[in-house]
Amino acid sequence: MVLLQAAAVIVLALLIDILLSDPPNRLHPLRWMGNMVDALDRRIVRGGIWRDRVMGMMSYLLVAAVSITLALLITALLRESIGVWAWVVASAVLFKITFAVSSFRRHCSPIRDALESGDLEGAQAMTQMIVSRRTEGMGCEHLSSCCVETVAENAVDSVASPAFYMGLLGLAGAYLFRCANLMDAMWGYRKERYANLGTFPARLDDVLGFVTSRISLAFLALSALLLKMDVKGLFRVAARDARLTPSPNSGWPMAAAAGALGITMEKPAGYRIGDGPLPGVEDIERSLRLVEVTSTLFIILVALPLYATIGVHLQLFMEDALLGIIGGLI
């Protein structure tokens, strides 16, 4: 019975993503987590290098502990008060919060449409919302490259990694990763203000993404095969160019996608990944299809069996332990 319920959690979470996508930003729990990080940022008094690094680590542990405790408390209480299928629905919703497949299309389709209609300024403004580089003055090819790079990189950060750790550790694993990734995005940039405070979440994000970024190649290759893209090019470009990005992990899915699509991704004064021409507008749609198929395959073939055999049992154990602690306090 547990096997069926675990499988239902993963499948339902994927269906929620496909059919409903994400809630509005102001209502999204990740926004609330971000608000918690901002509140800590305002209250931390900067000191020396090691003090700031310790404060960064403690901040991550606090955000992760609060997020995990709330998630497990919700599922545990629903299981005890209503029943196991309420637990299934809650677990699916809480897992869905940590990953996003359909949001790739929601963010990049308007950029593609603007480029197709010749609205270059509109495309530049929308692209600026998904990348950290300046997009003012960019042409169609570099704006398309921004979209394709973002979609490829997030195949790991937004899907494979949270799904993998959900499989291994249940909801605790998914939120451990999501908190590290969120804090890396907020504090991990190499700016003076966060040079030390963001060290721990940035390094943890690198560590947690190390395995998933590399095993994602197998699923990108399978997707490329199903979509009749260049599988040989995928492995050739990944082997040669995966280490060209500043991040130790993002280059792997980016290089694999560039090889599969037969294009070159370019960040001016940063890197060139791939063999072909710079991407055109049509390559945005091709990259979306590639990553959507990859994400679905990863969740079904990796997260589901891992969660059904390992993660669900650890999640139930942690839920019971939390209820025991609360019962002891009451």
Secondary structure: elements and pairs:
Elements: H1 2-20, H2 29-43, H3 49-81, H4 84-98, H5 102-116, H6 120-128, H7 140-169, H8 171-187, H9 199-226, H10 231-241, H11 251-261, E1 264-267, E2 271-274, H12 281-329
Antiparallel strand pairs: 1-2
Describe this entry's structure for a reader.
- The protein is mainly α and 330 residues long.
- The protein is 76% helix and 2% strand.
- The protein is built from 12 helices and 2 strands; from the N terminus they run αααααααααααββα.
- The chain has a two-stranded antiparallel ribbon with strand order 1-2.
- Helix 2 packs across helix 8, helix 3 (49-81) packs antiparallel against helix 8 and helix 9 (199-226) runs antiparallel to helix 10 (231-241).
Detail the poorly predicted runs: none
Q: Helix amount, in percent?
A: over 70%
Chain-averaged pLDDT: 93
Instruction: Please give the alpha-carbon distance between the first and last residues.
Output: 32 Å
Estimated radius of gyration: 20 Å
